[in-house]
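note to self — DONT lose this again. spent like an hour looking for the file last time. sequence + predicted structure for the chain T wanted, 359 res
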Amino acid sequence: MNSIDTPLYTVEYALQPQRDGTDRKIYLVLADGIPYVEVNKHLVILDKRYARPHSSEAYYICAFLNAMECQGISLSEVSLSAIYNYFYSRYIDEGASYKVVVKSLDVIAELFESLARRQYPLDNSLYQNSAYEQIHGGPVVLKNKKDSRLTRIRLLREEFIPRKTDAALTSSYTKWYSPDDINTISVELPLTYRCIFYVSLFCGFRIDSVLSVKLDTISLQNATIKPTRTKTGQIHVAALPQFLVQMLLNYQLEVRSQIVAATGSASAYFFLGRNGAPVTYNAYDKALKAAGERASIAHPELQIKSLHTHAGRSTFAATLRSYQLAKQRNGEPTFSDNDFCTLMDWKSLQCLANYDLVT
């Protein structure tokens, strides 16, 4: 039995070759460093069915398996009461939101449905009343939706009632990041998206503007960056901190150059996807949300909510506004509110009120 500090189960990704010559990222659960075949069969099928990497599902399953491992319960020994106790602890003892508990429960329920359909030996308490007899004698054939559930794990949903505070929590999102949020989220992002994340944070650009940067509008030698499009058409050059210059250089040498070599892309845009085309807003949005989900599972104490692409720019504005107000309170010279609005590409001074964090 492994300790909490050295979990038996971990999540890693692998690159799966596609027919078009590209590689597709898939997330797998490893048991002591070895792919857990029965669990990964389910994840691979999900990946094929929905055509998207199922990273959050893999992390939910990994967390559940480690919790069972700490109690000495193997996959085939997991009972309905063990599942209930796990989610009860998550909801009551750890304070996880109703949304997180239900989503995680659905993921675990789908895993055991898949195992049951493949006749993997499971504890009898998991099955519907007639399902145990159904699965003997050959593969299960499902005729309609009414008999499609072999297990009754999803019935546990009824045991968890949303708190009054859950509604507000599930509809909210992270408006700006704390330093711990930034560090935790960034390590979950691939290098390309990590660079975009930090440019938004340290330059205050909207994501669409970050993605518009071209090879001839960024100078790593001079540590400057300039978008080619903005929401209002006003464009300014931003300075890059040295650590970000190095990160962008690593991306250019380790990622972008390989993409160009593999695809023959002649794109002038700085940030490229694996297919050689410019990174799209939707691609970044999807990567950011997935990173946020993984970060929230790995570090529930941070209470990372749903991530929005605007949070990086908002963090930049909040930090800058705090600096400006601190200077004003101390009677020190600083930039004006009009200068602030010009920098942020805002049309109204009223926008500043949203960032008055220093009291």
